[in-house]
Amino acid sequence: MSSLKELRNRIASVKSTQKITSAMKMVAAAKLRRAQESAVAARPYAERMERMLGSLSSAVQGREGVSPMLSGTGKEDVHLLVLVTSDRGLCGGFNSSVARRARRKISQLLSDGKQVKLMCVGRKARDLMRRDHGDKIIESYSELDRPKLTFDAADQVADKISELFDAGEFDVCTLIYNKFQSAIAQIVTEQQLVPFAIPEADESDEAASDTEADRSVYDFEPDEAEILDDLLPRNLAVQMFRALLENQAGEHGARMTAMDNATRNAGDMIHKLTLTYNRTRQAMITKELIEIISGAEAL
Amino acid sequence: MADTIEFELVSPQRLMKSEPVEMVVVPGAEGDIGVLPGHSPLICTVRAGVIDIHEGGSVKERIFIGGGFCEVSPERCTVLAEEAVATTDIDRSEADERVRAAEEALSGADDDGRAEAERRLGIAQQLKAAADGAGSG
Questions:
Q1: Nearest CA to CA, how far is B44 from chain A (Å)?
Q2: What is the SS3 assignment for A223?
Q3: A110 and B CB contact within 8 Å
Q4: How would DSSP label each residue in chain B?
Q5: Domain ranges of chain B
Q6: Is the pLDDT reported for residue A250 higher than 90?
């Protein structure tokens, strides 16, 4: 049995850990609220962008000379996976779930005889993928949300993706990130960025259904190709930005939950340790008493 | 025909405006476009400039946008702006500062960055002009 001093130290250390985790929980909760607001506020833009792109792409469908970013390069040999994770750990399974999905996808693509390249956004993505797939990482970013997550940061990543695409470095680009659903649920989401996948019209979205009928009769100014040339890279940046915002909100949500669990665990542990401590102390007192009494009786 | 059209202005950060309006004038890349209810479907690029929202024959609100895209259907007009701020909220000194920074970037830009720097300067100048317009109007 451990000594009283050891137990006391142990309790003190668990108590200070608990203080840290509960402080981290508070901080994450405060940040979560802000991140959640901006993630929700950014959704309309990305949705409308998708809708507009949807009308545009159905208008140019089947035509010659369409930007390969929309129609694809005609083959799908090289896949670029863009992994979005947080920079910091201590947020439960948040990052490892993205990594797990990525590993599965990679092995599946490799067994199909495809080539895979990785782009890591967030330090944890690089850390997690470096050991098994380090040779595939062609680019990594970190600290994009410092001091604040801006559209320019997303633009920078998107520019790099377009640049790689123009250089013929990959044929298909897929984004893997955590979609924020609530503080306790983040959904790992795969989204194909290049070539642009026309989103399926959502039945509940009234806007989508009422434009359905007159999709083909749009006028364009300047012409379709020129707008598409502008819109496609822009869309890339917008989708990237959305992923970053969702990721940020998800990270804080996951951290809040993880830290809440940790705090509760620490509480349980302190309770158990205190119990053991008191028992040990009581046992020692009893033992001393027995010694005294039996000593007195022997006289 | 309805006498209002649903106008939406969205920036990457948020949904700025979503309300029925009588008419809105959008600075299209190839000339200003006045959108009234029942406008024929149109998709166009938008240059940096000012959107005028008209009501009762006069301009009710002016919003600066830094370029983007516009989608018009008979009952809806959606503008996707790179940035958007009401002209009355523009900070003069900030606009000046942006023009100065953009000019500096342009003078230091190599051939690759030239077009981008010029574009940024154009946006900054438009912002300043919009701020001037708001002050005098």
A1: 5
A2: coil
A3: no
A4: --S-EEEEEE-SS-EEEEEEESEEEEEETTEEEEE-TTPPPEEEEEEEEEEEEEETTEEEEEEEEEEEEEEEETTEEEEEESSEEEGGG--HHHHHHHHHHHHHHHHH--HHHHHHHHHHHHHHHHHHHHHHHHHH-
A5: 5-87, 90-131
A6: yes
Q: Does A289 touch chain B (CB under 8 A)?
A: no
Mean per-residue pLDDT for A72-91? Answer: 88
Closest CA to B18 of B71, B79, B60: B79
At residue A176, the pLDDT reads 94
Cβ contact, residue pair A56, B10, below 8 Å: no
ipTM entry: 0.78
Q: Which tens digits make up the pLDDT trace of A263-277? A: 999 999 999 999 999
- Cα–Cα dist B120/A153, whole Å: 16
Residue A91 is among the residues annotated as catalytic for this protein = yes
**Distance between CA atoms of residues A275 and A278, nearest Å:** 5
Residue B16 touches chain A, beta carbons under 8 Å? no
Handedness of CA A27, A33, A34, A40 (dihedral sign): positive
Strands (E), A136-221: 137-141, 172-182, 185-194, 219-221
> Is B44 within 8 Å of A234 when comparing Cβ atoms?
no
Closest to B43 (Cβ–Cβ): which among A41, A56, A207?
A56
Domains and CATH numbers, chain A: 4-20+259-298 (1.10.287.80), 34-257 (3.40.1380.10)
pLDDT of residue B82: 84
Please state, for a pLDDT cut of 90, what percent of chain A lies above it: 51
Closest alpha carbon within chain B to A55: B43
* pLDDT exceeds cutoff 90 at A286: yes
Chain A CB contacts of B33 below 8 Å? 221
When CB atoms are compared, the residue of B10, B14, B82 closest to A48 is B10
Strand partners, B52: B25, B62
pLDDT band at B115 (very low <50, low <70, confident <90, very high): confident
- Minimal Cα–Cα distance from B54 to chain A, Å? 23
Whether the pLDDT of residue A233 is over 70: the answer is yes
What confidence tens digit (pLDDT) does each residue in A32-44 have?
Answer: 999 998 888 888 8
Catalytic residue (one of A14, A91, A121, A158): A91
Under 8 Å between Cβ of A131 and A223: no
| CATH class for the region spanning B5-87 | mainly beta
Model confidence band, residue A216 (pLDDT cutoffs 50, 70, 90): low
